[in-house]
Amino acid sequence: MSESTAKPAFSPPSQAILEGEHKRYFTFFNVILTLIGLTFLELIIIILPFHEYVLLTGLIALSIIKFVLVIWYFMHLRWDQIFLTALFMLGLILASGTVAALLLLFPAGESVTNPAAPAAAMQAGN
Amino acid sequence: MSEATATSLSPTDAEPHHGAATNTGIPNKKLAMWAFLASDCMFFGTLISTHLIYRRVNPDISIDGNVVPATTIFDIELTSASTFILLMSSLTMALTVSAMHKHNVKAARWFLLGTIFFGSLFIGAQIYEFNHFVHNEAHPLTLTNSIFGSTFYVLTGTHGVHVLIGLIWLTSWYFYSFSPKFNEENAMDIEVTGLYWHFVDIVWILIFPLVYIIEYI
Q1: Range of the structural domain that residue A7 is part of
Q2: pTM for the structure as a whole
Q3: Same domain, yes or no: A52 and A74
């Protein structure tokens, strides 16, 4: 009795869990290989002779694919309740909205640095 | 209502935590972690957009009056290696959670150790990178000598702190796994820690192209 309480309390898992995890094991390896491949692609994009907007779009698209792969497989959203996906998407939509709003509020050229600000003076090397 | 939810979430797809005894059928710890991660998205969203806005408003990085291209500051080889290291840590974390679901504590401990190892390598590389930038003789980049430095260090530093917190959390689990109190109920706790760790990885997945690679285009 004392011997059994000294050991961690882990019961044998059900056959369904074992089979499910066995399948996931291979899925995880496929996902990591895809992620590594996409990261290499991101690095190759730098040297491609396309217009910067095309490259930027490609870069963002690759990041989104990698992002989705991690949350869908590694973070188990594929197998978890839809409510968790909705909850995370809510935060993600609010975050994306904030990013989009900020980028639109401060377009290049229109947001001129205040020359009287200490940081601007430092930038100018005064 | 809750009974119906629990029935509909029977473990047909071998998910060990479906049908938890809560109103949502989701363990409260897991729900709380997802809610936290959703809020952390907004936190990192503002930091990333601040960096991007300042890069667009001030295209020239001026350090002590000299214009310095970002490509001469960054070490893309090191950062790329860090990215691969963090991706590998995500794989070992996923395997840790999988091993815990199978109640295979020994395997879980090895994968946990692998995650700690890769996480430590990432933090080590980031410390080396920051040190290299600050002590660069030609054009030192500090938190206060340029707007680029301020936004860059705040963003990547905040991410680094997240990694460090994750490392401390994972290390605590590693040592706790040897305790007699460690049992199968802790599988959910480790899964929650895993969610946090994967989140740190997805934030880096966004930082790497938007802060580093974008400078080379």
Answers
A1: 1-80
A2: 0.87
A3: yes
**Spatial CB neighbours of B120, under 8 Å, sequence gap ≥ 6:** B167
B140 in contact with chain A, both atoms CB, cutoff 8 A: no
For residues A48 and A66, state if they share a domain.
yes
Residues A42, B208: C-beta atoms closer than 8 Å: yes
Q: What is the pLDDT along chain A (126 residues), one digit of tens a residue?
A: 444 445 546 788 888 888 888 888 899 999 999 999 999 999 998 889 989 899 999 999 999 999 999 999 999 999 999 999 999 999 999 999 999 998 888 876 666 666 676 666 666 655
Domain B28-216, what fold? Answer: Four Helix Bundle (Hemerythrin (Met), subunit A) (1.20.120)
Question: Could you tell me the two tokens for A120?
Answer: 């601007």
Query: Total structural domains in chain A?
Result: 2
**Most B CBs within 10 Å, among A33, A75, A102, to test the B interface:** A75
Residue B72 distance to chain A (closest CA, Å): 15
The residue among B90, B173, B203 with the most chain A CBs within 10 A of its CB, best to mutate, is B90
What interface predicted TM-score (ipTM) does this complex get? 0.87
Mark whether A111 and A99 lie in a shared domain. yes
Written as one string, the DSSP assignment of B118-175 is HHHHHHHHHHHHHHHHHT-SSS---SSS-HHHHHHHHHHHHHHHHHHHHHHHHHHHHH
A16–B101 C-beta distance less than 8 A: no
